[in-house]
Amino acid sequence: KKLAWALAAEAKGKTDYSRKHEKAIEYGTAGFRSKAVDLDHVLYRIGILAALRSRVKGATIGVMITASHNPVADNGVKIVDPSGEMLEILWETIATNLANVKDDELSATIIQIVDQEKIDLDKPASVYFGRDTRPSSPHLSNAAVEGSTLFNASVKDFGIVTTPMLHYFVAAYNSNNEYGIPTAEGYFSKLTSAFRAFREEVISERGPDCGDYTPIIVADMANGVGGPAMEQMAKHLKDLLTFEFFNVGEGELNHESGADYVKVRQTLPKRVRIKSKDRCVSFDGDADRIVYYYQDQSVKFRLLDGDRIASLVAGYIKNLLDIMGMELNIGVVQTAYANGASTKYIKEVLQIPVACVHTGVKHLHHKAQEFDIGIYFEANGHGTVLFSKKAKVLIKALREDKSCYNSSVYRLAGGKRSAARKMLTFIDMVNETTGDAIADLLIVETILHARAWSVETWENCYTDLPNRQLKVTVKDRNIIKVIDPQCHIGEPEGLQEDFDRLIGLFADGRAFVRPSGTEDVVRVYAEANTQANADKLAVHIAKLVHQKAGGIGDPPTW
Ligand code: G16
Questions:
Q1: Does the first or last residue of the chain, that is N or C, have fewer Cβ atoms within 10 Å of its Cβ?
Q2: Which residues form the Phosphoacetylglucosamine mutase AMG1 domain (predicted)?
Q3: Is the peptide bond before 492 cis (omega within 30 degrees of 0)?
Q4: ipTM of the complex
């Protein structure tokens, strides 16, 4: 069977999905990503890999065809492991190797994987597929489906869905529906029922007055999968939330819109009409990131990014834990992109420990699992909250604790149980498998409503250090090697020292660069005491990268 399938895969690969270029492609920050025209053979092979991985894990594996925030001409694929998390890092190497071998090495490579991983091809295999709205996605999805089918996997294609929905479907199915029902309706109903229950709990305690909170949200969907998904979600909550949607498919994906555009440029998306103080959100192309923003009275753009969401969520959860009198190990995970002011606020004001890891949700997710309650958000708006089994068991026990019904501390105990009920409802609202723009929106709205806060009150928690992000195009971005999560440079030699000298010239200066794992660029981040200084520092750092790492075209300016 092994030889027959491998040879059939190679033959089909040569005729229908041949490798048409010599460019190496790597499983990067979030899967494979490249120009869509270069990906036929990669998707076909990943379909095969998913069928193999499914047998190794004895569970359903997910394959999401998307290039998320990238321009519409790009595409890519993210592989989802059984509990809905990103593909195990060891298998990234296997995937990279399989994606890059020559056409006539395909059968030998497949046989090698089967032998090395001791895969029993007689076992059943099952793969779930989803795709984003790119024109290239149906074709690439078919290629992957063909690969899986050739390896005798049962295949379920969910069509156009958000990336986090596919993660949820995989986790739900593999949990025998304990995590949820693995359908779109199951997903919307789980999240929105929790949202409704939480709100009812708050209203029953406090009454309907919600202070400065207003239920109106202006939503930019980046012309991606978020549009149709949010329209469905909004129907479930039309009595509680009012949405005004923009960029829901009438324009080009991610073009001058979406979470990445808004965060990096620190500006409003195009084609969105807002009034001063409207609470606005932008999703990215596959709806796994969200950022909030508004325009203040002087028409100044104000951003509330992933760092703000992390601090809002961490503060609220800590507050509930305090009410419950429960000592759980809670932590926040960030990356080097986190604004220094957010880290300081979380550590010093909220008194919650903060860990810093390499960019990429997979790194944050793993670190967050070390806490009883791990809150992770990248500054770009990608994140979620993880609750350990221990935390869930303890909170459930408190909710069901009847021992205090007759006690004199009934009121206090009632408060504790209500906080426990809220926490459990909150857990149902979170997509614990990965960052999820829809779930994160519901969480933020829940907390703002519970706190009776406007977006300005939320923003007033701390003041961001001015910052700037730039991109430098170089011949080979991998010339830049970072050696730690803070992105100190190991290579090219001497570059870090040059950076340090420059950074030292700016008050509150901090800056770093790293090769992107999703775009063919080196990313530059700079922070300083004023916006003008942050811009200047970023431009200087970008110039140095351009000089020392083989820049193409002109260095970026701001
Ligand atoms: C992906 C990852 C994120 C990462 C982002 C940018 O997001 O899931 O963790 O922050 O890429 O990565 P890089 O700086 O390496 O290009 P998405 O939304 O594009 O899938």
A1: N
A2: 214-291, 305-453
A3: yes
A4: 0.96
